[in-house]
Amino acid sequence: MSAHPRLSLNQATIKRASLAEALEVTAAGGYRAIGLWREPVAEVGLAEASARLTDSGLRFTSLCRGGFFTMPEGPARRASIDGNRRAIEETATLAAAGAPGSTAVLVLVAGGLPEGSRDLVGARARVAEAIAELVPDAEAAGVQLSIEPLHPMYASDRAVVSTLGQALDLAAPFAPGTVGVEVDTFHVWWDPEALDQVARAGREGRIASYQVCDWATPLPGDVLLARHYPGEGVIDFATFTAAVEATGYDRDIEVELFNADIWAAPFAEVVARTAASFDRVVAPHLARAAAPSPA
Amino acid sequence: MSAHPRLSLNQATIKRASLAEALEVTAAGGYRAIGLWREPVAEVGLAEASARLTDSGLRFTSLCRGGFFTMPEGPARRASIDGNRRAIEETATLAAAGAPGSTAVLVLVAGGLPEGSRDLVGARARVAEAIAELVPDAEAAGVQLSIEPLHPMYASDRAVVSTLGQALDLAAPFAPGTVGVEVDTFHVWWDPEALDQVARAGREGRIASYQVCDWATPLPGDVLLARHYPGEGVIDFATFTAAVEATGYDRDIEVELFNADIWAAPFAEVVARTAASFDRVVAPHLARAAAPSPA
User: Which GO terms describe its molecular function (chains A, B) (predicted)?
Assistant: First the structure.
């Protein structure tokens, strides 16, 4: 089995796999890199997870996820900030345990409107405050926080950060190595400013991670699970990928799929199909490939 | 029965009513204005529809809808442009038949990506070309085309115009009286630039129509039917309405609800509930009310 040398499997794509299973099937699929989630790491404990990651030989590309800090000051907000501090430490530890070329990136999903609130402007301001509070910890740990804009259909209940431009504005007060942004095609493909903001993100040195997955309609009943293999929807990966590459982005590229059918399929099949779809619609537009991807 | 003097019922809110029923129940509900859809008008014919509208004593606020012109040149595109020309004529006729204060506004929904296409940039360019082609007809008929940005979750299959800023950019080459924009809270509430773009739309004299309805999650299985009575979701109507009023907007305000439960309810109940929700969450923030709304 083989996979493109810059392809990283985000663990959520095989959500039902344990950490051990995810590492094994990803390495067996010929991948060189993986993005992890906090919950399966916590199941075995950080030390054990780090050891297994090292044993896998895979690069670590990101930890999902921090964030969820839109609530007003109080115990819940303190708990969220504390949880994010732990996530920063976990990210640093895992990046150190991954193979050379690992990136200490912690993905931040902002969180939605607090229950009963209509104050979107206030919620967005509290995201800015939370990031400011976490930056010293991230800097000390050598971790890059990656603000992820989510599709606007999630603005009320999941992420009040909705565009790449907004994420870059939030990142602007801080050093790019400490606060970057996530460019996920699924979330930003529709934005008339998307390509301009990708270029801006590049100029500002803030693309922490490029993630690819596709958009198709009709949306499923649970719109969280609307993500498709690259090439199975309407996103123009040629243009998007070329735009990201033109910024000089040279990190790994994650595929992260939330999709009930994909989650129900055998892990090895999903891993292989992900690699094949990446080879077909993303790889041809990469300027930097360490090695050509065997078909 | 009474309703706020600036409240207009968009006919889609009582989708299953015939034109005659819609006019009757809207007038009986104390409304002074209605927005119509082409299909129920066509059912009785334009002349008969105009006569009934005149008899109702209601103002006409808009016709839904033109647009759906993202396809490349060919017979389908010609048919679309011709259909839009007829819609312009219908708008002019209905506005003349409505009570004084009627506005000759034709709402344009751009249309999604053509079947099998991933060329979002091209589709958007064809929207600009279609508008340019229709402007002389609209100008001659005294009709204002209103470009409606739809929520980005509809970008692939319904409207490639996704933000107010994009709609204003599309309108920019033309006179504001001929090409304006729709400000529908449901579609734009999430946008970090929404309030700035409302102010811009005001400065440029382009707010053709302000429509209010609410956003709530979870979204229904058919995301087209996700619209709620004002006040039953998360949108901050105080801030939004004040921003629109601050531009000097003084036209009627439509409520347009696509919602299976609302469509299944008795027309008179929907009409009354719409008026009550408007009184409660929108009316208090209006700078210009011809008369106070009796509770």
Answer: isomerase activity
